[in-house]
Amino acid sequence: xxxxxxxxxxxxxxxxxxxxxxxxxxxxxxxxxxxxxxxxxxxxxxxxxxxxxxxxxxxxxx
Length: 62
What we know:
- By secondary structure, the chain is α+β, with helices and mostly antiparallel strands.
- It is globular.
- Strands 1-2 form a two-stranded antiparallel ribbon.
- The longest helix is centred in the first third of the chain and has 7 residues, at 17-23.
- It is built from three helices and two strands; from the N terminus they run αββαα.
- Keywords: Cell membrane, Membrane, Phosphate transport, Translocase, Transport.
- One of its GO terms (biological process) is phosphate ion transport.
């Protein structure tokens, strides 16, 4: 997958935070069909702007 993303846009829908953090450059967090937050993956996992996003990626919610 890491080789493919050099040449293609790949959209992955997953509940695996480890896979999302490892394989993506950008991450979107959806909740109840709404896009809550979208940013560089490093920002989402290390410095989310919204508490709900942080709660989800740290396993405190969902």
